[in-house]
Amino acid sequence: MVGLQRLPFKRTHTDDVLRQSSRSSSDDPKSADDEEKVTVPTVSKHGAVNNEGKDDGDRSLLEQDEGVTRIEALYLVFGKGWALWGLWLSIGLIFYVYTLSSGTTYTYLSYATSSYLEHTLIGTISVATAIIAAVSKPFLAKLADLTSRPTALALSVLLYTVGYIVVASSTSVNAVAAGEVIYTPGSTGLDFLTGILVADITSLQWRSFVTSALGSTPWLINEFISTYITTGISANTKDGWRWGFGMFAILIPVCITPALAVLFWGDRKAKKLGALSVAASGYVQRKHLEGRDDEASPSKLHLALHYWRLIDGFGLCLIGTVFAMLLIPFTLSTTASKGFKNPSLIAMFCVGGVLLIVLVLWEWKFASHPIMPKRIINRSLVCSIIIDFFYYLSGYISGTYFLSWVYIIKNDWTLSGYTYYSYTETLTLCFFGIIAGAIQRVTHRYKYLQLSGLCIRAIGQGIQLYAIKNPSTVVLVMAQVVSCLGGSFSVVGSQVAVQASVPHQDMALAAAILSLWTGIGGGIGSAISASVWNDNVPANLAKYIGDTHNATEIADIFGSIIIARDTEPHDLVVKAYGDSIRPLFIAALVLSIVPILAGFYTTNFYLGTQHNAIEAKEVKILSADETTEEAIREKARRAEEALREKDAKVAVEEKAN
């Protein structure tokens, strides 16, 4: 795997930026171990200043997609006052209702599949949804850049709602899987796009703390509320889980409507005042500035094809198809006749292999707008991808069936006790994620905090392996707490490193690419876990309780964790499941070492008042005087003049050549 060496990547928009430390002129930090001290000129509010000190705030907006320009135009609308508070409160509401949903519906899936005696399909569903989640993020990122953040968010809400309606009304396990497939890009969009919104309007020094505080605090509250909801609807009964999915098909759109209203209002006001006239990539705006308002607009088909190329729709479809063809067979091998010799599985492997070659050739030679353009590739991005890829790979290998294993072996726990334990991972990640953000705010660095976290997580994986021999409550809790403490330090580090390493124009895409590869890592981990689980559990059950249970009974035990939990002799069932999951825990422990090696090669960016470490854009709240209609119109006028001057210079250069 490349990336463990000091990679000589350089970006087209800046050659030596990795040697520079992005900081405001008022800061005087200590030098980092792998970067030189430089001085960045003073910047204007929400603008950019070049090295001569001239204001390039308007001109910087001319080179970016309309969606990015729209969110920066909102800076002019949301100054100090009720509008700013309304924006933050609406974002907070999104985080709250999303976490309440995720904190309950996650536990319902096991009960939903078990109600159809198809618990083993969790592995297949996990692989499919992991691939869909990974592929949907680049699509949503480009959609948010090309249109607007609230437009992409509205699409996510629609998919989320439809997906959960399908799950709640399902009459077969196939309908449950179909609903999860529809729901996944919607859920992914809610999580990803709200994170991008926060990153849009925060500086590097505050980004991890604000993102963690908004995204994690609701989890700390909702975990306890979620337990009462899960118990109150009797989620472990045959149909109790349906109410769990159905209630959020109603709550999510209702609670997110205020956020969409605030964002669309700000977008409309910015456009009305002319703030969006700086969107040079917008076809209508450029026609207006060039005096071509009467020119016929492109057909809908032409625009559809144009945007399809911009989002590299063909490449995204190829990625999803390739990894589905290569990974899903591992989860189906046990139930398919003849196992891996089944003609359908062989065909899936062959098609996946051929399409993988096609994907590489397409992205390398033919894609006009590749998913991972060369301009954003840099050392920190590559190393962060390696870190999070193996983090998720090892995490899904050991974690896909971890809670199912705990539910079976700890039959002395009550349902509420098990539910509380299932929240240990989330609570630890969220609490220490906030702590990690605060540490970054104080130290203005992330690298060594991330390295420490990766080492701690490896220790946690070792405790998890030890828990097979000693599955006491203390050991099980410590395994989760230690692993997640380290994981929280790593996750926030990767996020801020990737966002700092690219300009605002490419931030959403870079974050999506990180999520794409981590999602693929998770998908591979789920496939490996499902294959090992589906092979080992039936064999070990037959080994330990085959003398007292026939093949049909063993199949029922394997198909439902509820039945397995109550099966006697229980000590032999525990041994069977322990032997089955041990190889997964060992593999996860070994793989958790790789991210530590990659962590040494990230760039230790200074986290200052800039939006990123590439551009000299300083993030500040604008005063009331700077957000008046007159001030906004003047800024738009200057932007239009800058665009006309630029076009005139380009025309002169073309004639000269």
UniProtKB/TrEMBL annotation:
Compartments in which it is found: Membrane
Gene3D superfamilies listed in its UniProt record: MFS general substrate transporter like domains (1.20.1250.20)
Source organism per UniProt: Schizophyllum commune (strain H4-8 / FGSC 9210) (Split gill fungus)
GO biological process, one term: monoatomic ion transport
Coiled coil spans: 629-656
Keywords: Coiled coil, Ion transport, Membrane, Transmembrane, Transmembrane helix, Transport
Family: Belongs to the major facilitator superfamily.
Cellular-component GO terms for this entry: plasma membrane
Protein's recorded name: Major facilitator superfamily (MFS) profile domain-containing protein
Main localization category: membrane
